[in-house]
Amino acid sequence: MNGREQRELLQSIVALGRAIFAARACSIMRFDADADELVFEAVAGEGEDTLVGRRIPSRTGVAGWVLHSEEAIAIEDVLHDPRFARDIAESTGYVPKGLTVFPLLHDEHAHGVLSVLDRGGDGPVGLADMEILGRLARLAAHALVAVEQARRAADGEVDELSRIGRALHIADPARRAAAHDVLDGLRRLLDGR
Q1: Which of 10, 76, 98, 100 is least enclosed, having the fewest CB within 10 Å?
Q2: From start to end of the chain, where are the E strands?
Q3: How would CATH label the architecture of 3-148?
Q4: Global pTM?
């Protein structure tokens, strides 16, 4: 699966979540443990053109609480919940009224969160809704882990190409330049996945 296909898979999951719940938005955020941040990987609805790639500290807001507690939560009025990070929501250009957030658990670790913002329908989130979202979150967790594994493999290949490039000690400048051109082409191919 190449990079475009990986993004399409995650985007399809959030589009499905948004459609099932007639929500204003649905997103998948990946936990970047090295940076201790949550990264928007896919967004459908509000913010879909601007949020992908945006990072926030991993302990921020309801998403951060869900990530670290590894517990799902449904909040009907986020403006009265102390875990809600209104400043972060305002910076995205959209402040939800309600949201449901699930941890993306795989091998007993949270790899990110799935959020559904301002779902349609009357009444509070019910058990049937939570069960459906739980299933969607399991699917998203498997997809996110597959994307992470593919990225790590690609990073390893790029690192190996860099080591090869440094090891090239070809005396003839024309041959050395040609070898480096081939390595640069391989790097571009790997980055384009």
Answers
A1: 76
A2: 25-32, 37-45, 55-57, 73-75, 99-106, 109-117
A3: 2-Layer Sandwich (3.30)
A4: 0.77
Which residue, chain included where needed, has tokens 């190449």? 2
Residue-wise pLDDT tens digits, 20-52: 999 999 999 999 999 999 999 999 999 888 999
Q: Distance of alpha carbon 139 from its chain centroid, rounded?
A: 13
Residue 177 burial (C-beta neighbours within 10 Å; 0-12, 13-18, 19+)? exposed
Q: List 29's β-bridge partners, or say none.
A: 40, 113
* CA–CA separation, 173 and 9 (whole Å): 44
Predicted confidence (pLDDT) per residue in 116-142, tens digit: 999 987 778 888 889 989 989 999 998
Please state the domain extents for the chain: 3-148, 152-191
Distance of CA 64 to the CA centre of its chain: 13
CA-CA distance, 38 to 111, in Å (whole number)? 9
Query: b vs e for 18-31, b when ≥16 Cβ sit within 10 Å of the residue's Cβ?
Result: bebbebbbbbbbbb
Q: Could you give the CA distance from residue 32 to residue 58 in angstroms, rounded to a whole number?
A: 8
